[in-house]
Amino acid sequence: MALQDGIAPTKNAHTPETEIKTAKLDGKRCFVIMPYGTKKGQMRDGDRVTDVVIDFDSAFAKVIKPAIDALGLRCEVSRTVDHSGLVHKEMIEAILQCDVVVVDITLNNANVFYELGIRHAARRSGTVVIRRAGQSIPFNINGLRVFDYDDAPDRVETSVKLLSTTIANSLAEQAVDSLVYSLTGSSLSIQRIGRPIDWCEKHSFTHDNIPDKRLGIVTGDICHVKGIDVWVNPENTRMQMGRMHDQSLSACVRYLGGQKNVHKRVVRDDVQNELEAKVGRDGLVEAGQVVTTGSGRLAGSHGVKAIVHTAAMHGEPTKGYQLIRSFPNCVTNSLVEVDRLNTAVFEGLRLNRYRGKLKTVVLPLLGTRENRTDPQDVAYQLVLAATNYLEDHPESAIEAVYFLAFTDVDKALCEGAFHSNEWSLVA
Predict the structure, then answer these.
(1) Can you tell me the distance from the alpha carbon of 109 to that of 85, in angstroms, rounded to the nearest whole number?
(2) For labelling, which of 35, 50, 105, 313 has a CA lying 20 to 30 Å from the CA of 201?
């Protein structure tokens, strides 16, 4: 292999692309796992072994932190969290929750490998493994992609640039970099408890094949989302809306859509009543099919024009509800219904009040919290369904389709699914 700017890629070294694939990283968190202080080690050059002294504080200051700072990431490091070397709650939370973790395996430190194992078991992507150039890799992780760095004066600048690009592309690609997940595939699904996002914010993405359409992420509680024309509400196949005190999207739609008295108690259950009138008290809807109702009081308070209820769950007596197998149809059929309403002149015997007015839609991340399914795969299938619909229907009046991210985990799932379906963030 040829030298690249003075750094020789080894068998396991990952030579990153020179172009950073995303430019909007501000606010994301990067956790660094590495030894601290000065340690004695060995440098290998073929069969020759040389004793060396490695200054990890210097490597962090000269290479690792500048590479992270260049991306606008918030840098946190295990060696400044606790110099005692003990693994504790604050450290574990950082390993699990940070958007990307950089792990320096130089000298094969036991604590470092323990923390790397935690990260690989918990997160399928977002882990960048690095080592000082010339250091060996243990045979049992020989399949990992490892970035070589060098803090020698004539190689620092190149190391910073390449490491910065590697970190940025790890965040952008969301590719599986965990041995645990790569070896077990979809048979493993470790659920992380997400942290609720306290603010409502819209992020738009574009696709080269459909430049006039947008997919997006809207963050936070659905109760605070305003200015989106259609809410897609997941229901069971009997179209039984959630109780108003439940913590669900359906309960939120029902409560906010109802007419209330001065004590904020619902006195007229507008959305539920209209839905029941359409399907009947004991009505049954086929899995994946949809029923549209008005939005009740949500029209005035949130600007919602219509609610599309989709039969996303089916129940079994005493066993509860689970996601239907054809869950991507919930996305497709919801968008078909929105476009039908956009073009139909009559809705029953009345003029269609929705005609040409439904431009934006928000969809929930159906099934991503179920233990039976791989959440990243479910998110990918949902986004793929929306992508295929927009590609196959260029005449659609729908301009933007958003996915609801209530937690930081939801947002990460969306970002990974968007990247896999070739959607790029709009600055």
Answers:
(1) 11
(2) 313
Contact 92, 81 (CB under 8 A): no
DSSP assignments along 62-95, one per residue = IIIHHHHHTTT-EEEEHHHH-TT----HHHHHHH
3-state secondary structure of 300: helix
Question: Model confidence over 106-135: pLDDT tens digits?
Answer: 988 888 999 999 999 888 889 999 999 877
d(CA 222, CA 239): 20
CA distance 156 to 104: 16
In a 3-state reduction of DSSP, which class is residue 42? Answer: strand
Tell me the domains of the chain and their CATH numbers: 29-187 (3.40.50.450), 202-425 (3.40.220.10)
Helix (H, G, I), strand (E, B) or coil at 383: helix
Dihedral sign from CA coordinates of 44, 45, 46, 50: negative
Q: Which of 144-148, 216-220, 243-247, 319-323 has the highest mean pLDDT?
A: 216-220
Quick one: DSSP state of residue 417?
Answer: H
Q: Which residues of 256-283 are buried (b: 16+ CB within 10 A; e: fewer)?
A: bbbeeeeeeebeebbbbebbbeebeeee
| Structure tokens, 314 | 């089916």
Classify 152 as helix, strand or coil: coil
Instruction: Compute the Cα dihedral for 175, 126, 221, 227 and give only its sign.
Output: negative
pTM assigned to the model: 0.71
Question: Do the bridges between strand 214-219 and strand 230-236 make them parallel or antiparallel, or are there none, so unpaired?
Answer: unpaired
CA distances from 67 to 34, 129, 416 (A): 15, 14, 23
> d(Cα 235, Cα 212) in Å, to the nearest integer?
31
